[in-house]
Amino acid sequence: MYEDKTLVCKDCGKEFVFTAGEQEFYETKGFSEPIRCKECRDARKAAGAQKKPRELFDAVCAECGNPCKVPFEPVEGRPVLCSECFKKRKEAAETV
């Protein structure tokens, strides 16, 4: 079964215990074992919450012709799909 493990945090170098219960939980979720201590994980989460929002660009969907916003800068000559048309195309490809 599982036994408590002592791991070393990638960020601060401090040792922390990865308990048997945590190991079992991580395995059931398919997670890898942690590389950061709880304090460093919490700090990264907090820093991530302060990131600026993603820039969106105006585009016109190549299939339905509706205006849309996309998270990348459209390149002339390359079709852009709105999220609805993209979803339809993806679902159609999955059924083939």
As for the number of domains, it is: 2
Q: Average pLDDT across residues? A: 93
Q: In angstroms, what is the radius of gyration?
A: 22 Å
Cα distance, first to last residue?
43 Å
Q: Low-confidence spans: pLDDT under 50, at least 5 residues?
A: none
Major beta sheet, strand line-up: 1-2
SS summary, helix count:
3
Structural class designation: alpha+beta
Main sheet properties:
2 strands, antiparallel
Beta-strand share of residues: 15-25%
Succession of helices and strands: EEHHEEH
Number of strands: 4
Based on CA inertia axes, which overall geometry fits?
Answer: elongated
In terms of quaternary structure, the protein is single chain
Helix content: 25-40%
Write up what this structure looks like.
- With 96 residues, the protein is α+β, with helices and mostly antiparallel strands.
- The chain has two domains: 5-49, no CATH class; 57-94, no CATH class.
- Helix content is 35%, strand content 17%.
- It has three helices and four strands.
- It has helices at 20-29, 38-49, 83-94; strands at 5-8, 15-18, 57-60, 67-70.
- The strands form two sheets. Strands 1-2 form a two-stranded antiparallel sheet.
- The model has no long low-confidence stretch (mean pLDDT 93).
Topology:
Layout: E1 5-8, E2 15-18, H1 20-29, H2 38-49, E3 57-60, E4 67-70, H3 83-94
Antiparallel strand pairs: 1-2, 3-4
